[in-house]
Protein backbone atom coordinates (compact mmCIF):
# COMPACT_ATOMS: atom_id res chain seq x y z
CA UNK A 1 0.00 0.00 0.00
CA UNK A 2 2.92 2.33 0.60
CA UNK A 3 3.68 2.37 -3.15
CA UNK A 4 0.20 3.45 -4.25
CA UNK A 5 -1.85 4.58 -1.25
CA UNK A 6 -4.49 6.28 -3.40
CA UNK A 7 -4.97 3.62 -6.07
CA UNK A 8 -8.49 2.23 -6.46
CA UNK A 9 -7.23 -1.36 -6.18
CA UNK A 10 -5.41 -0.51 -2.96
CA UNK A 11 -8.51 1.11 -1.45
CA UNK A 12 -10.64 -1.90 -2.41
CA UNK A 13 -8.07 -4.25 -0.90
CA UNK A 14 -8.26 -2.26 2.32
CA UNK A 15 -12.07 -2.56 2.28
CA UNK A 16 -11.86 -6.32 1.76
CA UNK A 17 -9.37 -6.70 4.60
CA UNK A 18 -11.61 -4.66 6.90
CA UNK A 19 -14.66 -6.75 6.00
CA UNK A 20 -12.69 -9.93 6.68
CA UNK A 21 -11.76 -8.63 10.13
CA UNK A 22 -13.68 -5.87 11.89
CA UNK A 23 -16.51 -5.84 9.33
CA UNK A 24 -17.38 -9.54 9.47
CA UNK A 25 -20.37 -8.98 11.73
CA UNK A 26 -21.80 -6.27 9.48
CA UNK A 27 -21.38 -8.50 6.40
CA UNK A 28 -23.20 -11.31 8.19
CA UNK A 29 -26.01 -8.87 9.02
CA UNK A 30 -26.23 -7.77 5.38
CA UNK A 31 -26.49 -11.38 4.22
CA UNK A 32 -29.26 -12.01 6.72
CA UNK A 33 -31.17 -8.94 5.50
CA UNK A 34 -30.81 -10.12 1.89
CA UNK A 35 -32.02 -13.63 2.75
CA UNK A 36 -35.05 -12.40 4.68
CA UNK A 37 -36.36 -10.10 1.95
CA UNK A 38 -35.09 -6.77 3.28
CA UNK A 39 -33.36 -6.06 0.00
CA UNK A 40 -33.32 -2.27 0.24
CA UNK A 41 -31.64 -2.32 3.67
CA UNK A 42 -29.13 -4.92 2.50
CA UNK A 43 -28.24 -2.89 -0.60
CA UNK A 44 -27.84 0.34 1.36
CA UNK A 45 -25.62 -1.27 4.00
CA UNK A 46 -23.35 -3.13 1.59
CA UNK A 47 -22.71 0.07 -0.40
CA UNK A 48 -21.79 1.78 2.88
CA UNK A 49 -19.56 -1.14 3.84
CA UNK A 50 -17.62 -0.83 0.57
CA UNK A 51 -17.31 2.95 0.05
CA UNK A 52 -14.64 2.48 -2.62
CA UNK A 53 -16.74 0.29 -4.87
CA UNK A 54 -17.28 -3.41 -5.38
CA UNK A 55 -14.65 -5.81 -4.03
CA UNK A 56 -13.07 -8.44 -6.25
CA UNK A 57 -13.71 -12.14 -6.61
CA UNK A 58 -16.66 -14.00 -5.14
CA UNK A 59 -17.32 -11.20 -2.66
CA UNK A 60 -17.68 -8.77 -5.57
CA UNK A 61 -20.22 -11.02 -7.28
CA UNK A 62 -22.16 -11.20 -4.02
CA UNK A 63 -21.98 -7.39 -3.70
CA UNK A 64 -23.55 -6.91 -7.12
CA UNK A 65 -26.23 -9.51 -6.44
CA UNK A 66 -27.29 -7.66 -3.29
CA UNK A 67 -27.14 -4.23 -4.94
CA UNK A 68 -29.13 -5.52 -7.93
CA UNK A 69 -31.98 -6.59 -5.67
CA UNK A 70 -32.13 -3.14 -4.08
CA UNK A 71 -34.27 -0.14 -5.08
CA UNK A 72 -32.03 0.77 -8.02
CA UNK A 73 -32.67 -2.52 -9.78
CA UNK A 74 -30.19 -4.75 -11.59
CA UNK A 75 -29.20 -2.64 -14.61
CA UNK A 76 -26.18 -0.90 -13.09
CA UNK A 77 -24.94 -4.12 -11.50
CA UNK A 78 -25.32 -6.02 -14.78
CA UNK A 79 -23.42 -3.31 -16.66
CA UNK A 80 -20.60 -3.39 -14.09
CA UNK A 81 -20.32 -7.18 -14.27
CA UNK A 82 -20.32 -7.07 -18.07
CA UNK A 83 -17.39 -4.67 -17.91
CA UNK A 84 -15.59 -6.90 -15.43
CA UNK A 85 -16.03 -9.99 -17.63
CA UNK A 86 -14.97 -8.07 -20.75
CA UNK A 87 -11.86 -6.78 -18.98
CA UNK A 88 -10.95 -10.20 -17.61
CA UNK A 89 -12.64 -13.17 -19.31
CA UNK A 90 -10.98 -15.46 -16.75
CA UNK A 91 -12.91 -13.81 -13.89
CA UNK A 92 -15.24 -16.74 -13.25
CA UNK A 93 -16.75 -15.12 -10.16
CA UNK A 94 -17.89 -12.09 -12.16
CA UNK A 95 -19.25 -14.35 -14.91
CA UNK A 96 -21.21 -16.44 -12.39
CA UNK A 97 -22.60 -13.29 -10.79
CA UNK A 98 -23.59 -11.96 -14.21
CA UNK A 99 -25.33 -15.23 -15.12
CA UNK A 100 -27.37 -15.08 -11.90
CA UNK A 101 -28.55 -11.54 -12.61
CA UNK A 102 -29.30 -12.17 -16.29
CA UNK A 103 -31.45 -15.12 -15.27
CA UNK A 104 -33.84 -12.84 -13.39
CA UNK A 105 -35.40 -11.62 -16.66
CA UNK A 106 -36.76 -13.81 -19.42
CA UNK A 107 -35.39 -11.37 -22.01
CA UNK A 108 -31.79 -12.01 -20.88
CA UNK A 109 -32.15 -15.64 -19.78
CA UNK A 110 -30.70 -17.02 -23.02
CA UNK A 111 -27.49 -15.09 -22.35
CA UNK A 112 -27.47 -16.38 -18.77
CA UNK A 113 -27.80 -19.90 -20.15
CA UNK A 114 -24.88 -19.46 -22.55
CA UNK A 115 -22.69 -18.07 -19.77
CA UNK A 116 -23.58 -20.77 -17.26
CA UNK A 117 -23.16 -23.55 -19.86
CA UNK A 118 -19.69 -22.25 -20.73
CA UNK A 119 -18.73 -21.90 -17.06
CA UNK A 120 -19.79 -25.46 -16.32
CA UNK A 121 -17.25 -26.68 -18.90
CA UNK A 122 -14.37 -24.52 -17.68
CA UNK A 123 -11.70 -26.24 -15.57
CA UNK A 124 -10.90 -23.07 -13.62
CA UNK A 125 -14.35 -22.58 -12.08
CA UNK A 126 -16.01 -23.99 -8.99
CA UNK A 127 -17.84 -26.70 -10.92
CA UNK A 128 -20.39 -27.31 -8.16
CA UNK A 129 -21.35 -23.62 -8.12
CA UNK A 130 -21.35 -23.36 -11.92
CA UNK A 131 -23.62 -26.39 -12.27
CA UNK A 132 -25.93 -25.03 -9.57
CA UNK A 133 -26.25 -21.70 -11.40
CA UNK A 134 -26.87 -23.47 -14.72
CA UNK A 135 -29.50 -25.64 -13.10
CA UNK A 136 -31.31 -22.57 -11.74
CA UNK A 137 -31.27 -21.00 -15.20
CA UNK A 138 -32.78 -24.13 -16.74
CA UNK A 139 -35.36 -24.34 -13.96
CA UNK A 140 -36.35 -20.74 -14.69
CA UNK A 141 -36.71 -21.63 -18.38
CA UNK A 142 -39.37 -24.15 -17.35
CA UNK A 143 -40.58 -25.97 -20.50
CA UNK A 144 -39.45 -23.40 -23.08
CA UNK A 145 -38.44 -25.57 -26.07
CA UNK A 146 -35.62 -23.14 -26.90
CA UNK A 147 -33.72 -24.59 -23.93
CA UNK A 148 -34.19 -28.26 -24.79
CA UNK A 149 -30.66 -28.69 -26.20
CA UNK A 150 -29.21 -27.04 -23.10
CA UNK A 151 -31.19 -29.37 -20.86
CA UNK A 152 -29.87 -32.36 -22.79
CA UNK A 153 -26.32 -31.03 -22.40
CA UNK A 154 -26.90 -30.56 -18.67
CA UNK A 155 -28.22 -34.12 -18.38
CA UNK A 156 -25.13 -35.44 -20.15
CA UNK A 157 -23.13 -34.07 -17.21
CA UNK A 158 -25.67 -34.95 -14.49
CA UNK A 159 -27.52 -38.01 -15.83
CA UNK A 160 -29.06 -38.89 -12.45
CA UNK A 161 -30.99 -35.59 -12.13
CA UNK A 162 -34.49 -37.08 -12.23
CA UNK A 163 -36.26 -33.70 -12.36
CA UNK A 164 -34.58 -32.77 -15.63
CA UNK A 165 -34.65 -36.29 -17.02
CA UNK A 166 -38.44 -36.33 -16.62
CA UNK A 167 -38.78 -32.77 -17.93
CA UNK A 168 -36.72 -33.47 -21.05
CA UNK A 169 -38.69 -36.66 -21.75
CA UNK A 170 -41.97 -34.75 -21.43
CA UNK A 171 -40.76 -31.89 -23.64
CA UNK A 172 -39.58 -34.32 -26.31
CA UNK A 173 -42.99 -36.02 -26.28
CA UNK A 174 -44.71 -32.64 -26.66
CA UNK A 175 -42.37 -31.65 -29.47
CA UNK A 176 -42.99 -34.92 -31.32
CA UNK A 177 -46.75 -34.56 -30.85
CA UNK A 178 -46.62 -30.99 -32.20
CA UNK A 179 -44.64 -32.12 -35.22
CA UNK A 180 -47.20 -34.85 -35.95
CA UNK A 181 -49.98 -32.31 -35.54
CA UNK A 182 -48.36 -29.90 -37.98
CA UNK A 183 -48.33 -32.67 -40.61
CA UNK A 184 -52.03 -33.50 -40.06
CA UNK A 185 -53.99 -32.26 -43.13
CA UNK A 186 -57.03 -31.51 -40.99
CA UNK A 187 -54.99 -29.39 -38.59
CA UNK A 188 -53.47 -27.61 -41.58
CA UNK A 189 -57.00 -26.95 -42.87
CA UNK A 190 -57.92 -25.52 -39.46
CA UNK A 191 -54.96 -23.12 -39.45
CA UNK A 192 -55.61 -22.00 -43.02
CA UNK A 193 -59.29 -21.52 -42.23
CA UNK A 194 -58.46 -19.30 -39.25
CA UNK A 195 -56.07 -17.28 -41.42
CA UNK A 196 -58.81 -16.80 -44.01
CA UNK A 197 -61.22 -15.77 -41.25
CA UNK A 198 -58.70 -13.22 -39.95
CA UNK A 199 -58.52 -11.76 -43.48
CA UNK A 200 -62.30 -11.54 -43.60
CA UNK A 201 -62.54 -14.15 -46.37
CA UNK A 202 -65.52 -16.07 -44.97
CA UNK A 203 -66.12 -18.05 -48.17
CA UNK A 204 -62.60 -19.48 -48.12
CA UNK A 205 -62.72 -20.12 -44.37
CA UNK A 206 -66.00 -22.07 -44.42
CA UNK A 207 -64.96 -25.39 -46.02
CA UNK A 208 -61.62 -25.42 -44.18
CA UNK A 209 -63.06 -24.82 -40.71
CA UNK A 210 -65.98 -27.16 -41.37
CA UNK A 211 -63.50 -29.90 -42.34
CA UNK A 212 -61.47 -29.30 -39.18
CA UNK A 213 -64.54 -29.37 -36.91
CA UNK A 214 -65.81 -32.55 -38.57
CA UNK A 215 -62.54 -34.49 -38.45
CA UNK A 216 -61.22 -33.04 -35.18
CA UNK A 217 -64.48 -33.12 -33.25
CA UNK A 218 -62.66 -33.67 -29.95
CA UNK A 219 -60.56 -30.52 -30.33
CA UNK A 220 -62.00 -27.41 -28.69
CA UNK A 221 -60.04 -25.08 -30.95
CA UNK A 222 -61.37 -26.78 -34.08
CA UNK A 223 -64.98 -26.42 -32.90
CA UNK A 224 -64.37 -22.92 -31.61
CA UNK A 225 -62.82 -21.88 -34.91
CA UNK A 226 -65.97 -22.90 -36.76
CA UNK A 227 -68.00 -21.14 -34.07
CA UNK A 228 -66.15 -17.90 -34.78
CA UNK A 229 -66.99 -18.25 -38.46
CA UNK A 230 -70.67 -18.92 -37.73
CA UNK A 231 -70.74 -15.87 -35.45
CA UNK A 232 -69.34 -13.70 -38.25
CA UNK A 233 -71.93 -15.17 -40.64
CA UNK A 234 -74.75 -14.27 -38.27
CA UNK A 235 -75.60 -17.93 -37.55
CA UNK A 236 -75.78 -17.22 -33.84
CA UNK A 237 -77.47 -20.41 -32.63
CA UNK A 238 -74.93 -22.57 -34.46
CA UNK A 239 -72.10 -20.46 -33.05
CA UNK A 240 -73.43 -20.72 -29.49
CA UNK A 241 -73.75 -24.50 -29.76
CA UNK A 242 -70.19 -24.84 -31.06
CA UNK A 243 -68.80 -22.62 -28.31
CA UNK A 244 -70.68 -24.64 -25.68
CA UNK A 245 -69.18 -27.87 -27.03
CA UNK A 246 -65.72 -26.29 -27.05
CA UNK A 247 -66.17 -25.23 -23.40
CA UNK A 248 -67.06 -28.78 -22.40
CA UNK A 249 -63.96 -30.14 -24.15
CA UNK A 250 -61.50 -27.65 -22.63
CA UNK A 251 -62.27 -26.91 -18.97
CA UNK A 252 -59.07 -24.87 -18.68
CA UNK A 253 -60.40 -22.52 -21.39
CA UNK A 254 -64.03 -22.63 -20.33
CA UNK A 255 -64.09 -18.92 -19.52
CA UNK A 256 -63.14 -17.97 -23.07
CA UNK A 257 -65.65 -20.26 -24.77
CA UNK A 258 -68.46 -19.45 -22.32
CA UNK A 259 -67.89 -15.75 -22.96
CA UNK A 260 -68.13 -16.30 -26.71
CA UNK A 261 -71.28 -18.40 -26.24
CA UNK A 262 -72.87 -15.51 -24.32
CA UNK A 263 -71.80 -13.11 -27.06
CA UNK A 264 -73.44 -15.33 -29.69
CA UNK A 265 -76.60 -15.56 -27.59
CA UNK A 266 -76.72 -11.77 -27.15
CA UNK A 267 -76.37 -11.07 -30.86
CA UNK A 268 -78.88 -13.80 -31.64
CA UNK A 269 -81.49 -12.27 -29.31
CA UNK A 270 -80.77 -8.83 -30.76
CA UNK A 271 -81.27 -10.15 -34.28
CA UNK A 272 -84.55 -11.82 -33.27
CA UNK A 273 -85.76 -8.58 -31.72
CA UNK A 274 -84.97 -6.64 -34.87
CA UNK A 275 -86.73 -9.24 -37.01
CA UNK A 276 -89.79 -9.14 -34.79
CA UNK A 277 -89.83 -5.34 -34.84
TrEMBL record:
Keywords: TPR repeat. TPR repeats lie at residues 220-253. Residues 1-20 are annotated as: Disordered. It comes from the Bacteria. The keyword Membrane does not apply. Residues 9-18 have a biased composition (Basic and acidic residues). This is Cellulose biosynthesis protein. It comes from Burkholderia stagnalis.
Amino acid sequence: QARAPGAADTRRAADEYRVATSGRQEMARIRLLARTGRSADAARRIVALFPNGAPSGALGAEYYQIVANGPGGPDAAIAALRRAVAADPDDADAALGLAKLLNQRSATRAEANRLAWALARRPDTDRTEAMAVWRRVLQSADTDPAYLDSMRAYLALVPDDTEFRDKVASMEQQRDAQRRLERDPNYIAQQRGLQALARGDLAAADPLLAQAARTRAGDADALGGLGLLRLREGRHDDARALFARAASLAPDQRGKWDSLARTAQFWGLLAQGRAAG
